[in-house]
Structure formats: C-alpha cells, structure tokens
Amino acid sequence: MARAAVPRRLGDRLSWKTARLTDRREESSAARTLGFEVPGWPGHLAGQHVDVRLTAEDGYSTQRSYSVASAPDGERVELTVQRVDDGEVSPYLTDELAVGDVVEVRGPVGGWFVWRPEQTEPVYLLAGGSGLVPLMAMIRVRRTVGSRAPFRLLYSVRSPEHQFFESELRLDSSGLDRTYLYSRSTPAGWPRPAGRFTAADLAAAGWPPDFEPTCYVCGSTGFVERAAGLLVAVGHHPNRIRTERFG
C-alpha cells in the first residue's frame, strides 16, 4: 500500500530534535525552568507540550511530556519541570541536567488546549500547582503581542513556597487579574483560610458566564475534574471549557 506523504511541518513536529540546555533557574524548592536551544524548532502555540526523551549509555530510553512555558522565541524553548521524588525523569531534569547537556525533544504537540493571539474573547485561566505552566505561556504570549483580550487567572497552590513564577506574575503590568488560593498554608495575614476552592471562589475570581469566556483548566486529574464541574455548575457552557491534566 502506498504511504501518504507527510507534510513537512507535521514531519518536523514528529521527528526527534537535539535540545541543548543553555540555562536553568529555580521556580520553587522542587521546580526548575530549563532553557533549551533546539535547532530546527518549528515554533509553537501557547498551551502546547513536547515529549522529552532521555537515553542512557546502555541504550535504555524513556520519555515524558512537558508543557512549554515560554512564548515563541526562535529556536529557544523553556520547560518548567516539577520534581516527582519517585519519578524516573523529573529528578534528573531538575537536579542533574547541567548547562551544555543534551536531551531529545519532539513536538510541539496539541491543538485544542491552546490560546492564539487572534482570540479576543475574555479568558479565564484556572491552574492547580504546576498546571500553571501552559497557562503561563498564554500569559506571556498575550503580553508579548500586546493583546487586549481580558485575562483572569485563578491559581490554586498548596502554599506560598510552592508558587511558580511568583515575581513575574507580581510585576506583570499587562492588566492580568490574579487570584491566589492556598490549599494547605497561607501567607501571614492572608484573608482566606487555607482549603479547597469552591464554586463561590471560581465565580468571584472569573468572568460571568454571559460574558462567554474561554476557560482553560490545567492541573491534576482531581483539580481539573472539580474545577470543570464547578464551572458548569455556576453556568459556564461545557463547550467553552478546555482542560489539560497531568499525572
């Protein structure tokens, strides 16, 4: 049987590319942002992810998927990785991978959970823990292109020590509305006690359903299912809710 030709752009995305680590910075006690140069990188949309492959000297290889944290910037790609203590890949990436080391990446992957600069409707971003990473890419793209699409962010995290991108979000001057919720411990004097988010929290931090915002929800399976269910319960149409989960 004849094999259909693969368009060059699709072929570029499906092929493994060499990614060399150029810099790294701490985002929290357990997370690092890793900057890579990827020759031949085809570009990406905010919200997409990549597959990362590690290969040992004996030929054993393993791969994991990570969201792209950065806005498109030529052949530079940033991934923010949270260490899973009993994981096989994340401890190596966060603790051992050194500047100059090489991994392989494939992508970008995904076309549903993305934000494009031509979108003008209100956007409601709901992040649980490290689920902020692809949403941060959306925030950065919006800021880079000067979009006037109104953005609101609800970020639920265990404690202040687990926050990602704290200083960047605090200094953001693009008009991004931000609400923080802490599930286990709060900053001193925080007005809301620590605990799980509620329907009232989602309604207070977000857009009214009749504004027809696009809602992007990312986090653990439990976070995503709870948030998506509460969004529907307070009146948001399911077709306007896009979800991405990890774990």
From TrEMBL:
Keywords: 2Fe-2S, Iron, Iron-sulfur, Metal-binding. Its cofactor is FAD. Residues 14-115 form the FAD-binding FR-type domain. Coiled coil: none annotated. GO terms for molecular function: 2 iron, 2 sulfur cluster binding; oxidoreductase activity. InterPro entries: Cbr1-like_FAD-bd_dom, FAD-bd_FR_type, FNR_nucleotide-bd, MRET, Riboflavin_synthase-like_b-brl. Pfam families: FAD_binding_6. This is Oxidoreductase. The lineage of its organism: Bacteria, Bacillati, Actinomycetota, Actinomycetes, Kitasatosporales.
